[in-house]
Amino acid sequence: MNVLRKSAALALLLSIVVAVPAVAEPAKVAIGYPTATDFLAMYVAKEKGFFDKHNIDATPTRLPVVTNIPPALVSGSVQIGMTTVPVLLQAVDGGLDFVLIAAAARHTKASPFISLVARKDVKIEKAGDLVGKKVGVPGINSVIDVLLRKWLINNKVPVNQVTIIEAPLPQLPDLLKSGTLDAVAIVEPLRTRIIAGDIGYIAAEYVSEVDPDFLVSAWMANGDWARKNPEVVGNFRAAIDEGLAFIRSNPDEAREIEKKYLGFNSPKFPSFENKAKPDDLRLFIAIGKELGLYRTALDPAKLVLP
Predict the structure, then answer these.
(1) Nearest partner of 259 among 11, 47, 37, judged by Cα
(2) Which tens digit of pLDDT belongs to each residue from 207-262?
(3) Quick one: which of 111, 267, 257 has its CA closest to 190?
(4) CATH 3.40.190.10-classified regions of the chain
(5) CA distances for 250 relative to 31, 261, 264, angstroms
(6) pTM of the complete model
(7) Domain 114-210 has what CATH class?
(8) What CATH number should be reported for the domain whose range is 27-108+214-296?
């Protein structure tokens, strides 16, 4: 009788163990990002435990140069990385399998943070005044550069009559101040620092003139990894959503987190976004074709993970 009871108890215990679903191990995800407020929701999600809540063991990994992120994704040193649409399109055009999995920030006419800033002793009132001038950009074929060239074309200014010089973003204010450059196409917070230091002035809101509302930054991953890990992608988006909600409800604490990650506070937040759409790519595909940047036909519907 005792043997029967023990057997029954053991069977009951085993049935209970089998009935309890196994808790999945947190997915280890390294997230590559550059120094920018665009990714504040990711910083917040890490600091406030939203990634942990959604079963992601997140490791934010700072990569100071955006063009270093595609190689990091290919090597597997990061699983998710920040991108701009031109960087994504150039990588895919070059044969890499990358997809957007989420958006990060938009540039809007109502809240611009990229501008053409001229040295204080250089008079720039219209696009044509840049003919014969030297303009600094933080990356050839970057969003800032591509839209600058499109702005020149829209204003019937031959691009080859403007000397566009690539330089690291942090060095642009010094190059402007020294007279090496006549103007810079630059982003916050450096835009505000140049103006506050009486080095230059905003000569044109050229980005908003090209398009008043577009996706300026986003998150991408290897297509194969993203398609094999839909739950991780969904959990990443959910954690970012919670980060965005926290920023809206706790802007002061969010600024403290921003300063911890970046070492500074931007004058204002960009227009944050989490959902990427195929339409977000069409602007840059069209401009890229006009500038001769792409060799292949790029289908935006295939480059954004649903």
Answers:
(1) 37
(2) 999 999 999 999 999 999 999 999 999 999 999 999 999 999 999 999 999 999 98
(3) 267
(4) 27-108+214-296, 114-210
(5) 24, 17, 18
(6) 0.84
(7) alpha beta
(8) 3.40.190.10
